[in-house]
Amino acid sequence: MRLYFENPIGRLLExxxxxxxxxxxxxxxxxxxxxxxxxxxxxxxxxxGWHKMLADQRAMAPFTEEESHWITNHWxxxxxxxxxxxxxxxxxxxxxYARLALNVVMSTAQHSSLTYRLFEAExxxxxxxxxxRLPSGT
Length: 138
What we know:
Layout: E1 2-7, E2 10-15, E3 19-24, H1 31-48, E4 52-56, H2 65-82, E5 86-91, H3 96-109, E6 114-119, H4 122-131
Parallel strand pairs: 3-4, 4-5, 5-6
Antiparallel strand pairs: 1-2, 2-3
């Protein structure tokens, strides 16, 4: 795997199987740095025409209300308006509050261009991405 981008929010890796591996770091987040991280995630996906990502959120602190709002009303909304379908395997956070915040974001994401599944461990998430058959044209 090749490192694409890294900042205090986490690391973005180019997986040789054709998807973005998004590894969130532990600790508090600065909103502008968070926005940059997700913006780079979108750029990585579009750079290669990828539609799949694995988001490893095990170490992540809960999304803030501002982050949740930005994800659903900007990041996912932009992809939906462009017709860019995304498929996400999410390894859920260990922190119970982070899981609750993730559930709020994911329930909103049901009305976006993101199709996702939640997993307890990375091997299951990776297997789902590997088996995923994208609609023709994506």
